[in-house]
């Protein structure tokens, strides 16, 4: 076989197609159109959901941002958006269960909601998806987690591998491990989509068996285009063997 033959063979090799049937349920995405930085239209949402279903997913729990400064969503806004989305899916003949929860930004206003007993949108039972800024640690992080637990909620920390302060603060990471905070990893982090340090931190969390959930965090088609490179990563086989909680949602 000559060099040209090798080149032609590499060029025509078929990459393994992405399958997420091992996960069954995606519990982190932004698919309700027009209410945050995710899908911009009903048509885009339908096309994204068609692709997600095509990967073998059986259920989607979409999680719009609730952020006091930027995305002032309420349970009512989210539920109305979900109704319109499901109606659109029904008309388009797309048969997949889609529910809605929220991705809450941890700040003083969120802490007040928890302390005042406001009902939160959960991904399942008492599980609440939460996030922070990417650079600086919130001063009240552990206080908020404690308040959530005292009010019957179990925090699910969205994409912790993306938080620069957590990558650098081993003591805080150890504290979160000790408190048994549930970690949700973005599948895209394992592809290097965000950065190499994020990828390495995500791999470490997988190696240490600290991941309870995986999510696509799908915002648009660019996310899914990159996600289709996941089978080529060295951790794809490994994450499919983990005992995660997605299937129980």
UniProtKB/TrEMBL annotation:
Keyword Hydrolase set for record: yes
UniProt protein name: protein-tyrosine-phosphatase
Q: Which residues form the signal peptide?
A: none
Query: Care to name a GO molecular-function term for this sequence?
Result: protein tyrosine phosphatase activity
What Pfam families would the database entry show? CpsB_CapC
Give the reaction(s) catalysed. Answer: O-phospho-L-tyrosyl-[protein] + H2O = L-tyrosyl-[protein] + phosphate
Record the organism: Arthrospiribacter ruber
* Keywords annotated in UniProt: Hydrolase
What does the record give as EC number? 3.1.3.48
Instruction: Kindly indicate whether the keyword Hydrolase belongs to this entry.
Output: yes
Instruction: Please state which protein family the record places this protein in.
Output: Belongs to the metallo-dependent hydrolases superfamily. CpsB/CapC family.
* Entry superkingdom: Bacteria
């Amino acid at each position: 076989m000559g060099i040209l033959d090798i080149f032609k063979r590499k060029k025509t090799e078929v990459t393994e197609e992405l399958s997420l049937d091992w996960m069954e349920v995606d519990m982190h995405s932004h698919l309700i159109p027009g209410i945050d930085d995710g899908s911009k239209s009903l048509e885009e949402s339908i096309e994204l959901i068609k692709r997600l279903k095509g990967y073998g997913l059986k259920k989607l729990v979409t999680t719009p941002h609730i952020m006091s400064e930027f995305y002032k969503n309420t349970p009512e806004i989210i539920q109305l958006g979900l109704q319109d989305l499901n109606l659109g899916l029904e008309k388009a003949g797309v048969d997949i269960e889609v529910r809605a929860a929220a991705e809450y930004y941890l700040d003083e206003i969120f802490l007040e909601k928890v302390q005042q007993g406001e009902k939160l949108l959960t991904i399942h039972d008492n599980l609440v998806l939460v996030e922070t800024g990417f650079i600086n640690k919130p001063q009240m992080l552990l206080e908020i987690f404690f308040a959530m637990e005292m009010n019957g909620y179990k925090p699910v920390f969205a994409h912790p591998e993306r938080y620069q302060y957590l990558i650098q603060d081993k003591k805080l990471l150890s504290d979160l491990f000790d408190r048994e905070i549930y970690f949700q990893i973005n599948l895209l982090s394992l592809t290097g989509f965000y950065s190499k340090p994020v990828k390495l931190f995500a791999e470490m969390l997988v190696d240490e068996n600290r991941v309870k959930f995986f999510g696509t965090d799908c915002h648009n088609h660019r996310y899914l285009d990159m996600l289709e490179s996941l089978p080529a990563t060295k951790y794809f086989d490994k994450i499919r063997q983990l005992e995660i909680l997605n299937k129980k949602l």
